[in-house]
Specification:
It is built from six helices and no strands. With 150 residues, the chain is mostly helical.
Length: 150
């Protein structure tokens, strides 16, 4: 990743992990990263179960750092992956909003379960529409992917 052009938190996290990797402090493959992500998520759950929101916030930072490391292993810029996920969410949620607004019911009259069912149904529609407009690689391949890790 170009170290001279982006000072975002995501790029900083990438740089820190890349520097550690160059010194040999790295997982041999992405499975270690995925295990770390699961571990950090478990620590968030534990902190919340104990009512310790402050500790859960710290663990969230660790989860984000591990997620950036997953992006590094997948050779995708983390900001691009996040932007792509946000755009997918927005596309899907816009369809849900249109459906609810076109119905004879207000938002308050939908249960969370009904909205989730609607989300799952409309997600497929939104994704098909998006696939027509966007590269099938999941993110804008020209700007977001990096050379594959060796």
């Amino acid at each position: 990743m170009d170290k001279s052009t982006d000072n975002s938190s995501l790029c900083n996290a990438w740089r820190i992990q890349e520097d550690a990797a160059q010194l040999g402090f790295d997982w041999p493959d992405i499975q270690g990263v995925l295990d770390k992500i699961e571990e950090e998520l478990g620590e968030i759950r534990e902190a919340l179960a104990a009512g310790d929101v402050a500790h859960a916030r710290i663990e969230l930072g660790d989860l984000l750092l591990a997620s950036v490391n997953a992006a590094r292993f997948l050779s995708v810029k983390p900001a691009c992956a996040l932007d792509d996920a946000a755009a997918r969410f927005q596309d899907r949620f816009q369809l849900v909003k249109k459906h609810v607004e076109a119905s004879d019911r207000s938002w308050e009259n939908y249960s969370l379960e009904e909205l989730e069912t609607l989300w799952q149904r409309l997600k497929k529609v939104a994704d098909k529409e998006r696939d027509k407009r966007v590269d099938k690689g999941g993110v804008n391949q020209a700007n977001c992917t990096l050379p594959i890790r060796e």
